[in-house]
Amino acid sequence: MDIAILTLLGLTSGFISGLFGIGGGIILTPLLAIFGVPLAGAAAISSLQIVFSAAFNLVARSKEKAVNYKLGLVLAAGSIFGSLTGIAIISIIKKYNGVDLFISLVFVFVLGLLAWVNLKSAFSSKSINAQNYHSQSLHKTQNLLSFAFLTKSFAAGIFAGFLMPIMGVGGGFVIVPFLLYIGKVDKNVAVCTSIFQMLIASCFTSFINVFFIGNIDFKIALFVIIGAVASVNLGGLVSKKTSPELFKKMLGFLMLSVALYFAFKIYIQH
Question: How many structural domains does the chain have?
Answer without folding.
Answer: 1
